[in-house]
Amino acid sequence: MQITVVDHPLLKAKMTRLRDINTDCATFRRTIGEVAMLLTFEAAAGIPMEECQVTTPLCETTGSRIHGTVNVIPILRAGLGFMEGVLTVLPEANVGHIGMSRNETTLEPMEYYCKLPKDLDAYTIVVDPMLATGGSAVAAVDQLKKRGLKNICFMCLVAAPEGVLKLNAAHPDVKIYAAALDDHLNEKGYIVPGLGDAGDRIFGTL
Ligand code: PRP
Ligand code: URA
pLDDT of 151-199, one tens digit each? Predict the structure, then answer.
């Protein structure tokens, strides 16, 4: 199984708050933004860099800057919950959107929207809080590659082993970054222990 589970005390504490059924919507939303910031540092490790010259108050020295652009693509709707945090860390990123809805009975994903950034060669971070069966992530990456994106990684809060294996098998080139790798899926396709329905908890819906 190929996945990077980011191991940091702050992330662990924030994940516990997100898992808690008693965490209210405002706290959930704020915390997911904080976790997104921390995860983005890790997911951005693969960004192409280039050397540049910089003048400090004392002298000239060599520094680094991002080479080219970075794309961030949230999978609607729950991926939107990540965006404030991601863009705090990567304010220059271009943002695309892909809408995927998982049928609650068949668990099959259906695409309902897609608008991509201009630069198809850019380093692209696809974000969605939950990687459960992996159906939505695989379908989203299938579509993004079909439309020309090449250099893709996937960032989530919680992954289930089933989803990791499915995404690894379909797209071995796509690195996965997560704050937690959970135990299993239940009979309804929810991650256990998980945190429930991420979209509903972010937006306060049923
Ligand atoms: C959730 C989640 C993922 C998907 C994960 O979205 O945000 O996109 O389920 O499940 P999977 O790995 O089994 O495909 P959902 O379809 O509930 O839509 P939402 O974001 O609008 O809540
Ligand atoms: N989607 C969610 O929001 N939560 C899960 O546990 C599984 C899929």
Answer: 999 999 999 999 999 999 999 999 999 999 999 999 999 999 999 999 9
d(CA 28, CA 23): 6
> Where do the domains of the chain lie, and which CATH numbers do they carry?
4-46+69-203 (3.40.50.2020)
Closest CA to 133 of 170, 99, 159, 162: 162
- CA–centroid distance, residue 25 to ligand 1 (Å): 18
Distance 132 CA to ligand 2 centre (A): 6
- Is this prediction's pTM over 0.90? yes
Q: Token digits for 192?
A: 């256990």
User: What's 46's DSSP letter?
Assistant: G
Q: Give the closest residue (by CA) to ligand 1 atom 13.
A: 133
In a 3-state reduction of DSSP, which class is residue 80? Answer: helix
Residue nearest atom 21 of ligand 1, based on CA coordinates:
77
